[in-house]
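User: Sequence recovery, please. Input:
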């Protein structure tokens, strides 16, 4: 049995918490949390110690490792994506019990914070005291900063494992992809990101904040081998045309309208041609659930019509996975309590069904 590095274990115990506990509440979703803990640990009480003990098995577990980041502080339309990790985990355990994965837990989230770089020293000290009972602690306090720091150490210890991140708003993908890309670069791997979304997320900043759900892609471009290694699929809600984004940032885009007019097979052909030119070794898939048409995925902060059908998204993913290893992925922007459709719990269930199918596929691919 392999050994979990002691320094990494201490960081995980301090900076993470048991699966589902990333949202700190007293009664909200209490029963759902208890059900999740019962399914994972076989009991609903005393899970803190069980979770800590489970970390020792990390070295010998699956390649695909789940990490929840229950933060929606980087969003800004309809909040509620902080519940995504809890609800998607429950859906996966119910519908895909055969999935081979290890659940690392949740990042400890102070819901008012985004990144430590926006905080003064006094606030950081206060938050360290709240999270770690030590105002002089060396650990970060904001979800984006904690996630990136933990994952740098994770990839250093386990270069052959990959993180499947569950958000949270899409700002969460910034530390997930940044740590992944930097680790792969050190390994000498040429990587690409396939980004499914209704929106480009290529703002430089939004209302003065540079790291948020609408700008995270811009700030990971320098960590890619080249900007065109970011391929975006499903775009349809943008104040500027495709030509602006491709010429300004050098990325490659396949808008949702192209899938309708050209057909999904032609779009797949175009994506694969781009990947072939780039000599890609491994891929990361970042999936914003609003890439899917709002008739199937309306439990999200920014549902958009005229999007990808679930079958179209799956066809693209299967074609990509058939030729390239997917070694990192995430599912973002599921907001289970958000109902823009008027369908209530039906909206929630439909969204989780689609997100569960896509997530289960990505996790299975990461394990290969």
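Assistant: Recovered sequence (368 residues):
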């Amino acid at each position: 049995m392999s050994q979990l590095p002691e320094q990494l274990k201490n960081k995980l115990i301090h900076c993470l918490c048991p699966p589902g506990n990333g949202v700190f509440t007293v009664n909200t979703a209490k029963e759902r949390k208890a059900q999740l803990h019962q399914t994972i640990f076989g009991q609903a009480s005393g899970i803190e110690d069980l979770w800590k003990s489970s970390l020792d098995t990390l070295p010998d577990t699956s390649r695909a490792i789940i990490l929840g980041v229950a933060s929606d502080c980087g969003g800004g339309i309809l909040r509620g994506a902080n519940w995504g990790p809890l609800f998607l985990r429950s859906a996966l355990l119910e519908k895909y019990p055969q999935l081979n994965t290890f659940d690392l837990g949740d990042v400890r989230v102070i819901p008012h914070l985004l990144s430590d770089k926006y905080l003064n020293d006094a606030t950081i000290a206060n938050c360290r005291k709240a999270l770690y009972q030590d105002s002089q602690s060396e650990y970060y306090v904001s979800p984006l900063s904690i996630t990136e720091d933990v994952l740098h150490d994770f990839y250093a210890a386990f270069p052959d494992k990959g993180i499947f991140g569950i958000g949270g708003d899409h700002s969460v993908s910034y530390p997930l992809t940044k740590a992944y890309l930097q680790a792969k670069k050190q390994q000498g791997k040429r990587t690409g990101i396939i980004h499914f979304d209704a929106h480009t997320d290529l703002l430089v900043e939004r209302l003065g904040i540079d790291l948020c759900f609408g700008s995270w892609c811009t700030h990971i471009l320098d960590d890619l081998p080249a900007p065109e290694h970011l391929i975006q699929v499903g775009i349809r809600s943008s104040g500027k045309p495709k030509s602006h984004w491709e010429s300004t940032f050098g990325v490659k885009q396949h808008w949702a309208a192209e899938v309708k007019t050209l057909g999904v097979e032609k779009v797949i052909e175009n994506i694969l041609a781009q990947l072939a030119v780039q000599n890609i070794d491994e891929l990361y898939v970042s999936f914003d659930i609003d890439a899917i048409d709002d008739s199937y995925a309306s439990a999200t902060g920014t549902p958009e019509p005229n999007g990808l059908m679930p079958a179209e998204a799956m066809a693209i993913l299967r074609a990509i996975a058939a030729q390239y290893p997917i070694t990192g992925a995430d599912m973002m922007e599921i907001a289970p309590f958000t109902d823009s459709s008027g369908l209530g719990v039906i909206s929630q269930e439909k969204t989780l069904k689609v997100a569960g199918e896509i997530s289960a596929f990505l996790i299975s691919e990461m394990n290969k």
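The chain has twelve helices and nine strands.
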